[in-house]
Amino acid sequence: MKKGILLVEDNASDEKLTLLAFETCGVSNEIIVARDGAAALDCLFAAGSYAERDPADLPAIVLLDLNLPKIDGLEVLRRIRADARTRLLPVIVLTASKEEEDVVRSYSLGANAYVRKPVEFADFTQAARALGLFWLLTNESPPAPRGKA
Amino acid sequence: MRESYRVLFESSPQAMFVFEPETLRFLDANHACVRLYGYAREELLGMSLADLWPAEDAERNREFVRTASESFVATVRHRKKDGTPCTVDVVANLVSFDEGTGRLALLTDVTARVVAEQARRAAEARFTRLADSGMLGIIVTSVDGRVHEINEALLDILGYSREGILSGSVPWNAVTPPEWRDLDERARQQLSSSGTAGLREKEFVRKDGSRVPVLVGSAMLEGEDKECISFVLDLRGSRQIEAAVKHLGEARASEATFRGFVEAAPDSVVVANRQGTIVLVNAQTERLYGYTRDELVGQGVEMMLAERFRAQFPSRLAGYFAGTRVAPTGPVSLDVYGRRKDGSEFPIEFTVALLETAGETLVCGSIRDTTERKRAEEQRQQLATMVESSDDAIIGKSLAGIVTSWNAAAERLFGYSAAEMIGQPIARLFPPDQQGEEPEILAHLAAGEVERFDGVRLHKDGRRIEVSVTIAPVRDPTGRIVGACKVVRDITDRRRAEVALRQAKDAAEAANRELESFSYSVAHDLRAPLRGMNGFARLLLDRYRDALDPTGQDWLEEITLNARKMGELIDGLLSLARVTRSELRRGQVDLSSTARAALGQLAKNEPDRRVELAVEEGLSAEVDPALARALLDNLLGNAWKFTRDAAPARIEVGATLRDGDRAFFVRDNGAGFDMAFASKLFVPFQRLHAAAEFPGTGIGLATVQRIVRRHGGRVWAEGTVGAGATFYFTFSEPKRSAS
Question: How far apart are CA B663 and CA B658, in angstroms?
């Protein structure tokens, strides 16, 4: 069974476009959408409204926007890296910003990749395809953590 | 007396006699003695010593000899046989003879010496009388300028004490102002070559700093001491001349004395009779005018004057005579021009005085060349005018910080009049919190430093004034620092303007920052809806193409195209904002390889383009690497874009020297531009080409300009339509200051 993708995105249009881009390029993994930073963390750690999820069932990748309600993307990233269960989880920052500062901070907090959302849908699709190809097919996922931290 | 001694006694050139100690009778006398007194030996042997004494000395001499010890030395007056007095030095000793005891006296005639001594004393007394007459300043110096003697008259002229001058604490050279030193030097050379120096009119600086015009003549004194005597005539007013003329009249015992006096006069002197005909001139006149004596004597005295002064002169002279008939008047000085034999004119002071002689009344004119004095006076006047008319306060002060001069601008600036400030401590102008500055300023001054600083001073009404101050030491003629000249400028307005400017700049910068952060967030937030517009239009085209006719499809294409264009504009704005916002991190950047990397990227994006590239090796600068790359990306991107239609296309990167600065350039042979629009090149969103012709956002060159400006440099372009463009840019040296 294919692992899912966690998309953390608060912009409804962008959410749809991202889903369509993945669909267009043939990525068929289940995509779970969290619309703020808090929901993203609940989903990963099986808390709150995601309490019945299996905490061991981590997504293959997390697509993380930076500009998020409640808990912003960088803080989400920091908490993912701080927790032993998700320490090795591939996180791809997917954002409108191409500010050097955002890029540097994302990488220094342990982002695996930084992708800027292009205006051109074709470019977006292209990016989604590349992401899916690399992170879902080519890349060897880290082994599932054993037990709880 | 033994025979051997007798021969010695007889033949000695030294006059000798022997006398009996009690009776003073002569026992013997030699030939020299006979020659000295004119008495024959036989005559002397019948006389006593007392017979040689003048009557008035007899008593005293007798007592002296009676009480004298075995040996004595004395200088006594004797009388020769013919009655002439003489003075002799006597050395007497008690000697034993076969006949008994006698006194042997050795006699030396010193009459000549004594007479010379008396003459010398008389001469000295005369000189002293002259020296003390107060008419003439006299000074005796060594050749190197050390003062040996100076009289009261000269001390009066200078205002110094004798001790001050003789001790050397007031160096003699120092009383001559610098502009007269050349003249002195010439006189010194003349002295050493000829023994006398021509008369020179000059000035001395008095102790109180005022100047006194003087006339000086010098001569070497005879003797081995190499001393120089100078006579100094005070030229202030006519008192001295009057005295001299009076003296002349009195002294005119003989024509020779009179002539001598005229000749010795320091000025050019012309003596004329009542009719104004010249009867006598001195050597100074010949020298001054270039005429010989013979050419002048017998002529009208007015020929000494420039022609325009001549006509009125005889009548003035007549008027002068007429005036004296009623009551004698003092000398009259005229400031006129003289005319030399060669026709040249020069300013003179012509002082006319009457000379009452035994036979007639003469006119004595003394003429002084005032060229130098006038020039010095003019110069001083000019300087004084400059100081007085200056817009800056110019203040003189002593080393003790006491104000010595105060110009009109100082009055305006500080509100105090010159009378209120001169003699007052300058510290009066210092606010209480800056009183500590003065000792520091004075210390710098003493070290001879010129100082400039900004500070605060107090106006008379208590107002604080912002000033810039320049202080330079003032030296006396010997180079000693005796005070300071302060130039003070009111910079209150400048300060105010600076503050206003700074505030305006701060406000502008704040507004700019706000605007940039606004444009940053706007740019981000604008992108999201664009993505939506573009994405869904694209999806519609992809998935529902069949539901639309070609026109609908075309319109959807337009939507995606416009959304993309707007995205590019926003990206341009973002990069422009980033250039201004990001911190400048300078480092040595290899611009050659940066340019090659940028060109490499361009070639990769458009592998079909054929472009000749010429990048000069070794281009480097201390700049921000990221911004340098952005700059070259933009310029080379433009060059790449605009050479699209050139064949062969060529892009060149290099450096050259422009206006003394190292300027880098990017040159292409592309579309170029019209220089008339050169000023619009760097304005954001200004484009010189239609988008359909060459696509672009109009942000690139604005970004380039910002990058260059952030580095303190300039950017400019040269181009011709159809023949390419060259973009030049410079970087300033990075600031090394701590800030």
Answer: 6
Residue where the block lists tokens 């458009």: B606
What's the rounded Cα separation, in Å, for the pair B382 and B375?
A: 10
Instruction: In whole angstroms, give the CA distance from residue A67 to residue A97.
Output: 9
C-alpha to C-alpha distance for B677 and B701, rounded to whole angstroms: 14
Tell me if A13 and B528 make a contact (CB, 8 A cut-off).
Answer: yes
pLDDT digits (tens, 9 = 90+) for B608-659: 888 899 999 999 999 988 889 989 999 999 999 899 888 889 999 999 988 8
Closest CA to B452 of B465, B470, B436, B466: B470
Is B93 in a helix, a strand, or coil?
strand
Confidence (pLDDT) at B328: 46
The distance of A17 to chain B (nearest Cα, Å) reads 7
Instruction: Choose among B157, B162, B220, B155: nearest CA to B187.
Output: B220
What pLDDT does residue A147 have? Answer: 47
Give the max Cα distance, chain B.
184
Q: What is the pLDDT of residues B389-414, one digit of tens each?
A: 888 899 998 888 889 999 999 999 99
| Nearest residue on chain A to B535, alpha-carbon basis | A121
Does B517 touch chain A if contact means CB atoms closer than 8 Å? no
CB B13 within 8 A of CB B19: no
| H helix count then E strand count, chain A | 5, 5
pLDDT higher than 60, residue B503: yes
Structure-block tokens of residue B326: 């009623």
Cβ contact B538–A121 (<8 Å): yes
- The string over B334-359, giving b where at least 16 C-beta atoms fall within 10 Å of a residue's C-beta and e elsewhere, is eebebbeeeeeeebbbbbbbbbbeee
Pairwise CB contact (< 8 Å): B534 & A121: yes
